[in-house]
Write a structure and sequence with these properties.
heterodimer, A: 121 residues, five-stranded antiparallel β-sheet, 3 helices, 40% helix, B: 176 residues, Ferritin, 6 helices, 74% helix, Ferritin_DPS_dom (chain B), iron storage (chain B), oxidoreductase activity (chain B)
Chain lengths: 121, 176
């Protein structure tokens, strides 16, 4: 969790990673960078929550069982955000896994922060 | 690693979602009261119509209170869509029965937010909700008293006219 990477003068801390992608946090910018589906995209607090909501709302089971002619592609477009994802079903599952893991880590970070710095001091 | 989520917003996403749902319920409730005011007015129950207009305004005020709270705490308040508002009622009594039902639903819903806050140790939101609990005491009291008028006065003869006249006079004065 505390693995730090520097890419072109911005310091990232890895929040969570899977084989196909990772989420990094930038403390100085107060935002997150998502490395997924071949691009590195910057998300601020509100957009990250919107992305989480958009991805969590996709009914993966329904898509798996759906035999209709439509392609298994989901377009994740977030209002007031520069990025848009066009993902296959497998990618959606992976992105969801990545986000779930990241939010658990952020929650854990919150608990640790509380215990070590806020409550203890 | 900084705790950015906590820096940006005091509310957890679960509590924020619950309060946003509550905003929708208050908006819905306000719209229903307006509809009741319309029905009463159309059927000649002027005092009841005024009573429901006031209730609609109160619910709207509650909605805004929740709305501003989310914004003040750094969250995202969502302006709700209000649909499925009943236009017709079968009887004068049914209007008041539904009004009480409405208030009970609101109370229960605020209780469930408080339960979540207790679980998360979100004492700040819990303290904020206290005002609503006091308010719901009054709202439920008024709705229950109004419905009781139907049994106390009775609907026969000039009963409905009497009930309508008394509805506007119901007040909750408890100091407790």
């Amino acid at each position: 969790m505390q693995q730090t990477t520097t890419i072109s003068s911005i310091t990232f801390t890895e929040v969570f990673s899977i084989k196909d992608g990772a989420i990094y946090q930038s403390d100085s910018e107060g935002c997150w960078y998502i490395d997924f589906a071949g691009k590195l995209a910057r998300f601020d607090y509100r957009n990250l929550l919107k992305l989480k909501k958009a991805v969590y709302q996709i009914d993966i089971e329904d898509k798996l069982l759906n035999n209709g002619p439509s392609a298994d592609v989901e377009i994740i477009f977030i209002c007031a955000c520069d990025h848009c994802y066009v993902l296959s079903l497998l990618q959606i599952i992976k992105l969801k896994e990545l986000l779930q893991g990241s939010f658990v880590m952020l929650e854990l970070n919150h608990i640790i922060f509380d215990r070590l710095h806020r409550i203890a001091s | 690693m900084k705790d950015i989520i906590r820096i940006k917003c005091l509310l957890s996403s679960d509590v924020e979602t619950l309060i946003n749902q509550q905003i929708k319920k208050e908006a819905h409730s306000s719209a229903i009261y307006l509809s009741m005011a319309s029905w009463c007015n159309r059927h000649g129950y002027d005092f009841s119509s005024d009573y429901f207009f006031k209730q609609a305004e109160e619910e709207r005020a509650h909605q805004l209170k929740f709305y501003k709270y989310i914004l003040d705490m750094g969250g995202t308040a969502i302006s709700p869509e209000v649909t499925n508002i009943k236009i017709e009622y079968n009887s004068f009594r049914e209007v008041f029965e539904e009004a009480l039902d409405q208030e009970i639903n609101i109370t229960q819903s605020i209780k469930s937010i408080a339960a979540r806050c207790t679980k998360e140790q979100d004492y700040i939101t819990l303290e904020f909700l206290n005002w609503f609990f006091r308010e719901q005491r009054e709202e439920e009291y008024k709705a229950r008293r109004a419905l009781e008028l139907f049994d106390v006065i009775g609907e026969e003869g000039t009963g409905k006219w009497q009930i309508d006249k008394h509805v506007g006079q119901i007040a909750y004065n408890s100091e407790a």
